[in-house]
Amino acid sequence: MRLNHLLLWSGDVARALEFYEGMLGFVRIEAGDGYARLRAPDGEATLGLHAARDDQRPPWNDGIGLYLEVDDVDAVCRRLAERGVTFDQSPADMGWGWRHAYLRDPDGHRLSVYHAGEKRFLPTPG
Fold first, then answer.
1. What's the whole-number mean pLDDT along residues 69-77?
2. Which CATH number fits domain 63-126: 3.10.180.10, 3.30.565.10, 3.10.590.10, 3.40.50.720?
3. Is the pTM of this model over 0.85?
4. CATH topology of 1-54 equal to that of 63-126?
5. 38 in Cβ contact with 28 (< 8 Å)
6. Most buried residue, 20, 42, 97, 115, by most Cβ within 10 Å?
7. What is the pLDDT of residues 85-124, one digit of tens each?
8. What are the DSSP calls for the chain, one per residue?
């Protein structure tokens, strides 16, 4: 079994596409009426954006968290801040050994820009 892509519901796909493509550097694979699919700047992971109906709006998006691994959290966050991105949490070292910064996309989905260093993969349960 392979994970094909993650799908995020969006109140405004064009606005979300602008954020992921323009701010975060995702690469557009396809875009049409109410849908877009993008590839992460590095790697093979893809992300789908799909128009949400009115009954699919927040607060459901608090259950979603996207983790974007980078080599230098502080440098990436500086570049994003220069583009107007605001953060819920500035870069900080976490108790489990990873460095994280947290932000939200235009639909309120939570994103983490992080670096795991030597602790890249946390132990799997059992």
1. 96
2. 3.10.180.10
3. no
4. yes
5. yes
6. 20
7. 999 999 999 988 889 999 999 988 899 999 987 766 555 5
8. -----EEEEES-HHHHHIIIIIIT--EEEEEETTEEEEE-SSSS-EEEEEEPPGGG-TTGGGG-EEEEE-S-HHHHHHHHHHTT--EEEEEEE-TTS-EEEEEE-TT--EEEEEE-GGG-SPPPP-
